[in-house]
């Protein structure tokens, strides 16, 4: 697993985003993430195939999939206590192929979310570990 610099995709504004090189294709990485999340009882709310959506309107895009996932039992108490976190929940994972063919997994850093919303604890650390395992 390689952790990339924050500007892998040319965006200098990606502070708080973890970007990991993946050992598998976009489709395989997404399947691995979904399987690991479901095995932990985490709900997949949506799987958005952005390549398919681009093709549907006659445009091109490299393989790009956004997963939206979470656990309402864990997220709801957080939203009740820290209402601003609702903008970042449910959690998201972006899997995309760069121009050189490398597949990248990107997600918000648990520490970034803790600081951004003033959380007293780091409730998403286990999710970061799970996502890193899927990238390998």
Mind sketching the topology for me?
Layout: E1 2-3, E2 17-21, H1 26-39, E3 43-49, H2 50-56, E4 64-70, H3 72-81, E5 91-97, E6 103-108, H4 110-117, H5 125-135
Antiparallel strand pairs: 1-2, 2-6, 3-4, 4-5, 5-6
List the strand order in the largest sheet: 1-2-6-5-4-3
Largest pleated sheet: 6 strands, antiparallel
Q: Briefly, what CATH class?
A: Alpha Beta
CATH superfamily: TT1751-like domain
Number of strands: 6
Which structural class do the helices and strands define? alpha+beta
CATH topology: TATA-Binding Protein
Q: Do you know the CATH architecture?
A: 2-Layer Sandwich
Structural account:
The N and C termini lie close together (5 Å). The chain has a single domain, classed as TATA-Binding Protein (2-Layer Sandwich), CATH 3.30.310.70. Helix 1 runs antiparallel to helix 5 (125-135). The model is unreliable at 1-10 (pLDDT under 50). 23% of the residues are buried. The protein contains five helices and six strands; from the N terminus they run E-E-H-E-H-E-H-E-E-H-H. The protein is globular and about 45 Å long. By secondary structure, the chain is α+β, with helices and mostly antiparallel strands.
